[in-house]
Amino acid sequence: MRGALGSPRLLLRRLREVMVEPVSAQERLDRIVVVIASNMVAEVCSVYVLRIDGTLELYATEGLNPGAVHHTTMRLGEGIVGTIARDAEPLALSDVQQHPAFSYKPETGEEIYNSFLGVPILRAGNTLGVLVVQNRAHRVYNEEEIEALQTTAMILAEMIASGELQALAKPGADIAVRRSLHLHGVALADGVGLGHAVLHEPRVVVKDIIADDTQSELTRIDEGIATVRETIDRLVERGDIAHSGEHRDVLETVRMFANDQGWVRRVREVVMTGLTAEAAVKRVQSDLRARMLRQTDPYLRDRLHDLDELSDRLLHALTGEQFGVAREDIPENAVLIARSMGPAALLDYDRSRLRGLVLEEGGAASHIAIVARALGIPAVSEIPGITSLVEAGDAIVVDGSAADVQVRPQPDVESAYAEKARLRARRQEQYRSLRDLPAATLDGESISLNLNAGLLVDLPHVAETNADGVGLFRTELQFMIAERMPSTSEQETLYRQVLDQLSGAPVTFRTLDIGGDKVLPYMQVVDEENPALGWRAIRIGLDRPGLLRAQIRALLRACGGRAFKIMFPMVATVEEFVRARAIVTRELVYLRKLGHVEPSSISVGVMVEVPSLVFQIDELVRVADFLSVGSNDLMQFLFAADRDNRQVADRFDPLSAPMLRALKTIHDSASAAGKPVTLCGEIGGRPLEAMALIGLGYRSFSMSPASVGPVKAMLLSLDSAAIAAEIDRLLTMAGDRGTLRQQLAGFAAARGIPV
Ligand code: PEP
Ligand code: MG
Question: By CB atoms within 10 Å of each CB, which of 330, 543, 727, 748 scores lowest?
Answer without folding.
Answer: 543
